[in-house]
Amino acid sequence: MDSRMMDDDDLDLEREDVLVRNLVAADLGRLVRIDAQLMGRERPTMIESRMNRALNNTSINVSLGAEVDDGLVGAVMAEVHYGDYGRAEPMAILDTILVDPAFAGQGIGRALVAQLLKNLQALGVEHLRTEVGWNEQPLVGFLARMGFRPAERMVLDVRVEDAARRLSHRS
User: Fold this and answer.
1) Is 163 left (phi over 0), alpha (psi -120 to 50) or beta?
2) Distance between CA atoms of residues 78 and 141, nearest Å
3) Which of 9, 51, 103, 104 is 20–30 Å from 83 (CA)?
4) HSE-CB of 10 using CA atoms within 13 angstroms
5) Secondary structure of residue 108 in the 3-state scheme
6) Among candidates 25, 119, 31, 118, which has minimal Cα distance to 67?
7) Where does the chain have alpha helices with state H?
8) For the segment 3-61, what is each residue's pLDDT rounded down to a tens digit?
9) What is the Cα–Cα distance from 145 to 166, expressed in whole angstroms?
10) Model's pTM, two decimal places?
């Protein structure tokens, strides 16, 4: 997952004033601003690409926004995949979590993930997977409190230029 969320929610914390709803295209500008606050730089193309994929390129929209006082303060973007990663059963991929820093620690992230899990459960999805940077400890801690654990599968990465050079030397 590329975006950061500093949301040290207490699992018992419930916010009755949070409205969790489906994301809509009109949310894009606010999500770009929240992401810029979290990342320290604007990434409108990346957020627009993820939003477009979340809203238009999946058969099932499981991406959600959180509102407080009629203002968008957070979002999760996820997709449901059928038969990916060598599995026969449906699996969801959590791609993005965003929480406005002004609302960190106030239950926004928890409300979003809780509703996402309810929606996925209703769809018969058994697994939700995400990736985080090893140094994103606040996010890792949040996800651990939400029930996430290290996966049985290992993510492998290669720098394309280095691998191509290595393979061309072997020819």
Assistant:
1) alpha
2) 20
3) 51
4) 5
5) helix
6) 31
7) 28-39, 44-56, 108-122, 137-145, 160-170
8) 444 344 433 345 678 999 989 999 999 999 999 999 899 998 989 988 888 777 655 66
9) 42
10) 0.74
Q: Provide the token pair at 80.
A: 């449901």
Place of tokens 């699992």: 11
**Are the C-beta atoms of 5 and 39 separated by less than 8 Å?**
no
**Tokens describing residue 25:** 């295209």
Q: Which tokens in the block code for residue 118?
A: 């309810």
> Residue 34 — φ and ψ, nearest 5°?
-65, -45
Among 39, 35, 10, which Cα is nearest to 111's?
10
Tell the burial category of 112 from Cβ atoms under 10 Å away from its Cβ (0-12, 13-18, 19+): buried
Which amino acid, residue 73? V
pLDDT for residue 112 is more than 80: yes
Name residue, tokens 């006082």.
Answer: 69
Residue 55's closest CA among 81, 82, 92, 23? 23
Question: CA angle, corner 46, sides to 43 and 80, nearest 5?
Answer: 140
| Position 156, amino acid | L
3-state helix, strand, coil in the chain (%, to 5): 40, 20, 40
Measured in degrees and rounded to the nearest 5, phi and psi for residue 81 equal: -120, 145
